[in-house]
Design goal:
alpha/beta, 267 residues, Rossmann fold, binds S-adenosylmethionine, 12 strands
Length: 267
């Protein structure tokens, strides 16, 4: 039997992966508005990301993020909140928000920005059934790391949902950046799921450790979600292969099986 994998936090004090992001966010918060992060992937890409992106205002939210916020219920747990653009927008609209982060310094920054309820505890330590929405944005499902990590992430998230609750999360169909056709498989000849990408972030010469980040297509998500007791209710497409996934507990969702079947048939 396979050992049970839990969705792991980046273990509190482990700055190895996301430490340079934490430093870039701190620099921006302290007035260095030109702070920039260097992001490399094993697809051969090397991009500069302005730290300001993580401080985007509601007006600057892309359509996918606006749509995501429309699907949020009263009690929201935001996983991987970063500098908190979505948590802050939701708080302004009267939602109750718990922001979950991996690093204490990002948690401190969230508090400084006005998101007062923040935790760096693993999802499995949070009270079951305490959220109407678990929100993961900016390719939020990427935090699963690998396809193998997807079911544990979803299982940890579904445990937090109150009856009728939803996981609201985004991803990108890897076919978009692999330049594949819609009907092409995302699994390479070696059997590896090609949406598993290695990322490395760098800020001012300080490089983080490379880490896996998952881009998952909607059909594959539907299959893994169903194993975690979830139904992919909707996969709303946006630009550049991105989509917004709305996942409901299967026991809440009468016609859930139909949706999952339809999506897998489409794939
Ligand atoms: C790409 S950023 C997205 C930030 C934010 N959601 C946004 O849209 O601006 C991903 C965030 O997830 C956090 N993170 C990484 N691993 C995590 C984990 N296992 N649990 C919670 N947060 C995590 C990182 O520290 C980082 O702030």
């Amino acid at each position: 039997m396979r050992p049970k994998i839990r969705f792991e936090m980046n273990s509190g004090t482990d700055r190895s992966r996301w430490g340079p992001l934490a430093d870039a966010l701190r620099a921006y918060q302290d007035g260095r508005t030109d702070a920039r992060l260097l992001v490399r992937t094993d697809l051969g890409t090397r991009e500069e990301w302005a730290a300001s992106v993580f401080f985007r205002t509601t007006d600057e939210f892309p359509p996918l993020e606006r749509e995501a916020l429309r699907h949020c219920g009263r009690r929201v747990i935001e996983v991987g909140a970063g500098a908190g653009p979505h948590s802050l927008a939701l708080l302004r609209e009267g939602h109750e928000v718990l922001a979950v982060e991996s690093l204490p310094e990002i948690a401190a920054l969230l508090v400084e920005r006005g998101v007062e309820t923040v935790t760096v505890r693993p999802l499995d330590d949070l009270p079951a059934g305490s959220a109407d929405t678990v929100l993961l944005l900016m390719n939020g499902l990427g935090l699963a790391g690998t396809l193998e990590g997807l079911q544990p992430l979803l299982e940890s998230a579904v445990r937090l949902l109150a009856p009728g609750g939803r996981i609201v999360a985004d991803s990108t169909d890897p076919r978009h950046f692999l330049e594949l056709d819609a009907e092409d498989p995302v699994v390479g000849q070696d059997g590896r799921y090609e949406g598993e990408v290695q990322f490395q972030v760098e800020f001012e010469g300080s490089k983080g450790a490379p880490f896996p980040f998952l881009y998952v297509d909607a059909e594959t998500l539907a299959k893994h979600a169903s194993r975690a007791g979830l139904t992919l209710e909707a996969a709303l497409p946006f630009e550049n292969g991105t989509y917004l996934a709305i996942l409901a507990r299967s026991d809440d969702h009468d016609s859930g099986h139909d949706t999952a079947t339809r999506l897998s048939e489409a794939g």
